[in-house]
Amino acid sequence: MNAVLRLYDFALPFARLADYGRPLLLLALRLYIASVFFKAGLTKIEDWDTTLFLFTEEYSVPLLPPALAALLGTAGELLLPPLLAIGLAGRFAALGLTVVNAMALMAYPALWAFECPAAVQSHLWWGAGLLAVLAFGPGLLSADHWLVRWRATR
Question: In this predicted structure, what is the pLDDT of residue 117?
Answer without folding.
Answer: 81
